[in-house]
C-alpha cells in the first residue's frame, strides 16, 4: 500500500503542474487530474507503463493535457493484512484483532521520528483507513503508536522550508481530514507523546484511551505557528475554552491523568494494558449492528457541528430511520425473547 501511495505521488509530481482534482470516485480506484500544461508525458508511454505495479497512467484530452491515473489493485481489501502485504506499508503496521476477528489495529510505525506525521504517513493512513472502512468484516478500528509516542506532530523537518504559496497551493494538511470522515468508530490508544498534529489526530478519533505516561499538547506556538489540523477547533469543544486557550497559547503539555479529568480522554490504563483494553471496547462496539453504530457515530458527531434544536431534530430522524432496519427489529425482538440478537447489518 505504501508503495502504491509513493508511486502515485511520484507520478503526480512528474506530471508537472497538477491544478485540480476533477473526479472524486466512490471508491478510490480512479483519479483524474487536469494539468495546466503538459510538461512531460513519460508516464504514458508503453515502456513506462510496465514500471507501475499498482497504477495505470494515460494522457487524455484533445490537447493531451489531462493525466488519467488509475489505482489498479482490485484485491486490496482481501490483502489488507496478509504478511506479504504487511511489508508494503512504509509507516504502518496493520493487524486484525478480537475473538471474532472484527477489529482492525492500525499502528503508526515511524519510530525514529517519534511517529512524526509526514505526508507519506498521512497518505498511507488515509488509504488504509478508507480500505478498512469498506471491509464488512471489521466493526471497529483501534489506532495506536509506540510506547514512546502516539505521534509527535506534523513533520517539522518536512515543513521547515515551505513557503506560504507552497502550503496554500498544495492544500497542505487537507488530506488529514480523511481520518475524521471514516464511518466506522476509531479508538485512539495513546501511549507517550500526542503533540500538535498527534493530539489533533487523536481528537479526530471517536474515543481516546491513554496510557499512564501519555502526554497531550498543542506546542505549535513554540514553533511560531498555530495548530492546523483541528487543534483550535476540537480542543475547546472537548475541554472548554479556558483549558484549550491555556494549552494552545502556552504550548504546555498535560499528562494522561489531567487529560482524563478534563474529559479529553475517557479512560487511563497502564501502558502495557492500553491496546488490550482498547481492543476489548472495540470488540464490544463491533458486536452491535454495523449500520446502527455508524448512525450513532454520525449523530454524536453532529452535536459538534450544529445547534441543540437542529441536533435534536437530526437525532430524532436518525432514531426513526432505525425503524426501517432489520437490525432494530432483531434487537428489540431478541430483548423480548430473552436471547442475544443476531445482527446482519441490514
Ligand atoms: N517532526 C519531525 N521530527 C520529529 C518531530 C516532529 N514533529 N518530533 C520529534 N522528531 C524527531 C526529532 O527530530 C529526533 O530526530 P533525530 O534523532 O533525527 O534528531 C527524534 O524525533 C527524537 O526526538 P527528540 O530527540 O527531540 O526526543 P526527545 O525525547 O528529546 O523529545 C519531544 C521528544 C518532546 C516529542 C520533541 O521531539 C518535540 O518537541 N517534538 C516536536 C513536537 C512538536 O512541536 N509538534 C508539533 C509539530 S507542528 C504540527 O503538528 C502542526 C499541526 O497542527 C499539524
Automatic annotation (TrEMBL):
UniProt keyword list: Fatty acid metabolism, Lipid metabolism, Lyase
Keyword Lipid metabolism: yes
GO (cellular component) term, any one: mitochondrion
GO BP, sorted A to Z: fatty acid beta-oxidation
GO molecular function terms noted in the UniProt entry: enoyl-CoA hydratase activity
EC id: 4.2.1.17
CDD domains, A to Z: crotonase-like
Pfam families with a match to the protein in the record: ECH_1
Family note: Belongs to the enoyl-CoA hydratase/isomerase family.
UniProt-recorded name of the protein: Probable enoyl-CoA hydratase, mitochondrial
Organism listed in the record: Adineta steineri
Amino acid at each position: 500500500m505504501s508503495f502504491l501511495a509513493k508511486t502515485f505521488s511520484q507520478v503526480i509530481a512528474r506530471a508537472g503542474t497538477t491544478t485540480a482534482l476533477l473526479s472524486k470516485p466512490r471508491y478510490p480506484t480512479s483519479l483524474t487530474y487536469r494539468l495546466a500544461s503538459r510538461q512531460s508525458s513519460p508516464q504514458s508511454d508503453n515502456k513506462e507503463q510496465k514500471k507501475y505495479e499498482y497504477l495505470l497512467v494515460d494522457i487524455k484530452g484533445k490537447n493531451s493535457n489531462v493525466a488519467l491515473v488509475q489505482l489498479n489493485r482490485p484485491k486490496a481489501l482481501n490483502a489488507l493484512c496478509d504478511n506479504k502485504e504487511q511489508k508494503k506499508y512504509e509507516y504502518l503496521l496493520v493487524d486484525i484483532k478480537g475473538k471474532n476477528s472484527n477489529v482492525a489495529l492500525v499502528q503508526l510505525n515511524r519510530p525514529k521520528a517519534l511517529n512524526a506525521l509526514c505526508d507519506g504517513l498521512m497518505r498511507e493512513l488515509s488509504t488504509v483507513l478508507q480500505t478498512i472502512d469498506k471491509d464488512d468484516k471489521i466493526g471497529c478500528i483501534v489506532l495506536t503508536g509506540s510506547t514512546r509516542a502516539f505521534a509527535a506532530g506534523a513533520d517539522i523537518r518536512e515543513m521547515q522550508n515551505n513557503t506560504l504559496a507552497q502550503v496554500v497551493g498544495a492544500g497542505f494538511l487537507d488530506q488529514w481530514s480523511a481520518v475524521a470522515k471514516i464511518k466506522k468508530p476509531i479508538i485512539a490508544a495513546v501511549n507517550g507523546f500526542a503533540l500538535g498534529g498527534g493530539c489533533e489526530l487523536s481528537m479526530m478519533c471517536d474515543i481516546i484511551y491513554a496510557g499512564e505516561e501519555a502526554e497531550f499538547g498543542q506546542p505549535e506556538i513554540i514553533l511560531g505557528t498555530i495548530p492546523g489540523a483541528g487543534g483550535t477547533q476540537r480542543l475547546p469543544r472537548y475541554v472548554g475554552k479556558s483549558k484549550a486557550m491555556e494549552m494552545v497559547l502556552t504550548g504546555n503539555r498535560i499528562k494522561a491523568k489531567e487529560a482524563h479529568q478534563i474529559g479529553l480522554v475517557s479512560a487511563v490504563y497502564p501502558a502495557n494494558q492500553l491496546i488490550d483494553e482498547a481492543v476489548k471496547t472495540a470488540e464490544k462496539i463491533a458486536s452491535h449492528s454495523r449500520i446502527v453504530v455508524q448512525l450513532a457515530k454520525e449523530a454524536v458527531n453532529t452535536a459538534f457541528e450544529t445547534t441543540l434544536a437542529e441536533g435534536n431534530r437530526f437525532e430524532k430522524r436518525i432514531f426513526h430511520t432505525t425503524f426501517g432496519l432489520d437490525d432494530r427489529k432483531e434487537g428489540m425482538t431478541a430483548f423480548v425473547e430473552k436471547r442475544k440478537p443476531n445482527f446482519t447489518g441490514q
